[in-house]
Protein: (2Fe-2S)-binding protein
Amino acid sequence: MPLTTSQSANGMGEGSMQGHSIELVVNGQSHALAIDPRQSLLDVLRETLDLTGTKKGCNQGACGACTILVDGKRVVSCLTLAAMHDGGEITTIEGIANGEELHPLQTAFIEHEGFQCGYCTPGQIMSGIGCISEGHAGSPDEIRFWMSGNICRCGAYPGIVAAVADAAERS
Structure:
């Protein structure tokens, strides 16, 4: 049967691609959104909510620059659709400080020089928070293993591992 002008090849009407309603709690604030159901969570955060701290690196899930927490679990936001997280609690780098007081891992990154150019730093910090909360920060080797999905092209790994270990000890 031929497609009509209101259908696409996937059988959805043209209007179906826009206006999918979801609600996300992002950094403690509720957002009712009308999104394209094909949008990644990364794109919704950056383009719709203007939360640009979460970085777009490879857009293929290989670098970890877009790591956030969804319901407390680490997620590479470029590989997950926003529509899959309706009702979910999202934490981005913008939501971890307590006012002017930095998150302990942010402080540790500064103290241990866990960054150089800084592009990967938000994803590294979010992954580090997840790593600590999951109980995977018992040794430098364990931290390196559980943080291996986050790439630092500058090679700041010694400082990153030291920062995660320090923050884990403080928590």
Residues 50 and 151 are 24 Å apart (CA to CA). Helices lie at 41-48, 104-111, 121-133, 140-146, 157-170. Strands lie at 20-26, 29-35, 67-70, 73-76, 89-91. The chain has two domains: 17-95, 104-170.
